[in-house]
Amino acid sequence: MESATVALGHAHEEHHGPPEAHESSRIDRQTLGILLFIVSEVMLFGAFFAAYFFLRVVVDPPAWPPEPYELPVAVAGINTAILVSSSFTIHYALEAIRRGDHRGLKLGLVLTWLLGATFLFIQVNEYVHIGFSARDLGFGTIFYSLTGLHGAHVFVGLFLLSVATIRAFRGHFGPKAKDHLGVEVPGIYWHFVDVMWIVVYVTVYIL
Amino acid sequence: MHNPLRSEADAFRWVVVIGAGAASVIALTLLTRPVVGVVWGALLIGFGAGFAYRAARGSLPGRLAVTRGGDGRHRVLVLANETVGGEALLDEIRARCTGRRCEILVVTPALATSRASHWASDVDEAIELARQRMELSLIAIGGLGLKARGQIGDSDPNVAIEDALRVFPADEIVISTHPPERSRWLERGVVERARERIDLPIAHVVVDLEAERVR
Fold first, then answer.
1. Collapsing DSSP states into helix, strand and coil, what is residue A128?
2. Which residues of chain B make contact with A5, given a CB cutoff of 8 A?
């Protein structure tokens, strides 16, 4: 059956089959899946932040962090810069593959992985030298819980990036949107991990 | 409503914006006192949430692509709820289909009885009532010697029309409402919105059920 698309302005053009789905709902399953997953992750972090603010605001200890503990604000700040940089490199990787630049894709992914691994290494190093453990007061518990929860997400992100990087080196990705979902979806997750760290850093180390 | 996070590029923009906001909070906190950073952070979050809400509301596509059958049949999409069996509407349908091979789809929105019911998706009763009205209207249209199909639509009449157009390549649309002083659809601008978004002839029929009953 032949039919014609009719849009506003009386523009006519040949069209076969039913009209396309509403644009606002046009989103691929994989992206929708990661977005829903991120929503659930935000709730998980929300629970930990609720515990943090309960300890800090409702319990209201005389000092935060409690004496004699101190948080390495400067080192964590540098670590924050490293992680935020990795958002730029993963974005660079995706922009590269959108242009069909496979070399740029690989470079961006490798750099992102290295920056993420560096972040994780520095965080583990921070745990080793920080001078308190998760057993030291509610402060220690919530500090390790929040930063540890985030660290676990970085670890998962690194795993996803590893898969994407291996696939990139095997030439699996292409410039069309549907051909690089394997980078797009970990990219969205990685940005989420970055944003969560910014929130954790500002809340726990700065405010 | 537009999803403000549809791709990695969107997510990256959020990282940049949130990063910039966080940098300003950090700078203010280190230069002044933590409470200043908290207040500034709260202001930024409120501003950002408002901006995201406005951007999401204003980004719906402005027009709807529609198809036409092109097989010689005249297809009429009828949107009506309580006025679905009104004489004025039946007269309008008869006038449009006389002497033509006509195909009619009657869409009856399932209107939730309250906003709370709508938000709770408690629409079973609304769907049942809409189904009853629709079946009566199909019988009435059948009485004119015309064949019609029926469909229960979304509680938003404009969404119901657009949903129906995706499966029914209408040549024209007839929207039936109560008179202006009693019509919630007219109050909400259902006809105007449909005319703005859909490039098809749209007829508006006013059905005064009370006047018909008196007659």
1. helix
2. 65-67
Phi, psi of A57 (to 5 degrees): -100, -45
Q: What does the pLDDT look like over B148-181, one tens digit per residue?
A: 899 888 888 888 898 888 888 888 999 999 998 8
Chain B residue whose CA is closest to A89: B12
Q: How far is CA B65 from the centre of its chain?
A: 15
pTM: 0.62
Domains, chain A: 28-206 (1.20.120.80)
pLDDT by residue (tens digit) across A117-151? 999 999 999 999 998 888 888 889 999 999 999 99
pLDDT in tens, B16-68: 999 999 999 999 998 998 889 899 999 999 998 888 777 666 555 566 666 66
CA distance A12 to chain B (A): 10
Taking the C-alpha atoms of A117, B29, A199 and A24 in order, what is their torsion angle to the nearest 10 degrees? Answer: -120
Burial of B4 (0-12, 13-18, 19+ CB in 10 A): middle
Residue B189 C-alpha, separation from nearest chain A C-alpha, in angstroms:
19
